[in-house]
Design goal:
Helix content is about 75%, strand content about 0%. The chain is mainly alpha-helical and about 200 residues long. It has two domains: about 1-60, Arc Repressor Mutant, subunit A; about 65-205. The radius of gyration is 21 Å and the shape is elongated.
């Protein structure tokens, strides 16, 4: 093997090790947050990932960068649910499908979203990401509603509030409801806001 080939193999090996250690660090962060450790320290992440503390900060310049990477990983995890095309002609069926998917996503991301919401006030990255998520949720909601409903400003704000993560977290964490019980509450409120629709067959968990 030539010196050039040896150098290429060495470089490729380093890149693979770098990607592997970065993946393990992000996975460790996700595991710790999922287990209820809202703000893991770098030492805790390093221990869980079975890497040295220096490795954590070689891959991520600070913990804020690691939280940003965690946010990307979660977004990729739920993307197949969020981005799947809605499959109905009637607007209210698409709306019901959007609601069902959103609640499923909330269940997946709950521990990470709670952590991010707590820490966003001291992280510009997390605050920016939070605003992006809220804006995306609003745009997706608006995209399925018919024009005559879009003219009703207070109704739009009410729907946004009912379908927010804050509402879901209130029902699940503060009020101690199961996922299905929380979904039933959301459906009850939506049926009052949109009495012309029937959501019960579409929004179960």
């Amino acid at each position: 093997m030539s010196k050039q080939e040896t150098l290429i193999d060495t470089t490729d090996g380093r890149r693979l090790r770098s990607r592997d250690s970065k993946r393990r660090i992000v996975s460790a962060m996700l595991e710790l947050v999922r287990e209820g450790n809202i703000a893991p320290t770098a030492e805790e992440v390093a221990q869980r990932a079975n890497v040295g503390l220096r490795t954590v900060f070689r891959r991520f310049k600070d913990m804020e960068s690691l939280y940003a990477e965690m946010s990307v990983a979660i977004s990729e995890q739920v993307a197949p649910i969020v981005n799947k095309a809605l499959g109905h002609e009637e607007w209210w069926r698409n709306f019901a499908q959007l609601v069902e998917r959103r609640l499923r996503v909330y269940e997946v991301i709950m521990p990470y979203r709670v952590a991010a919401d707590i820490l966003k006030f001291r992280s510009d990255i997390l605050q920016t990401r939070h605003l992006e998520i809220v804006r995306d949720e609003r745009e997706r909601l608006m995209s399925v509603l018919p024009p005559f409903l879009l003219e009703d400003g207070p109704l739009i704000e009410a729907l946004q509030a009912v379908l927010s993560f804050d509402m879901w977290n209130q029902l699940r964490s503060d009020q101690g409801l199961s996922a299905q019980q929380a979904a039933d509450v959301v459906n009850r409120i939506l049926s009052r806001l949109l009495p012309e629709t029937s959501l019960s067959d579409f929004c179960s968990l």
